[in-house]
Amino acid sequence: MFWHPEMKPYTADTSFHFSFPRLTRTATLLCTAYAALLLNPEHALADSNNELVEQGRYIARIAGCNDCHTPGYMESGGKVPEDIWLTGDVLGWYGPWGTTYASNLRLILPKMTEAQWLTLAKSTQFRPPMPWFALRDMSERDLRALYQLVKQLGPAGNPAPAYLPPERTPNGPYVQFPSPPLQKNISR
Ligand code: HEC
Question: Atom 36 (ligand 1): residue with closest C-alpha?
């Protein structure tokens, strides 16, 4: 507290008589601040949501999601603007399972609730080369982080091409896995 020689000694102020109104005022201020926090918890929520989104960015970068689900990500060394992230790819993955395309997560995830996303991620085996086991083994917080990132980025792009069975050769660009599709299924 600021004290000036012309003021009464500080101790005079601390008597019950003088300090009571000040205490009441302090208590009122504290109560008002607490009530404001209770009535408007958005600040606290916004912070934790930003943290989740930031974590989502980190996972999309380092867990390989962008490598396959973001067009040009691998080729450009990760130099793809965030608004293109996870919009799927037309590059086919051709193997004994047929041809798969990395889905457009920006169109798929926002159609689900967070709970549906957690169930899908924990319990679904997708076709190769999707590392579905990475989703299965991911912590719930990390899965929520990815969901919140995609939700914040919003829907964008077109759906990835549809899956092709092994007997169909893809038209567009594709990566062929060493083991060819089942010969008996190929009609040439
Ligand atoms: C090596 C490439 C590759 C990587 C890495 C990869 N994916 Fe995939 N992902 C795919 C392909 C290909 C499919 C389509 C699989 C199919 O058709 O069954 C797919 C499908 C999915 C689907 C299913 C969507 C739908 O169509 O319903 C989800 C969800 C998904 N990936 C999320 C992720 C996430 C999250 C990561 C990062 C942890 C990731 N993927 C990493 C290639 C990849």
Answer: 65
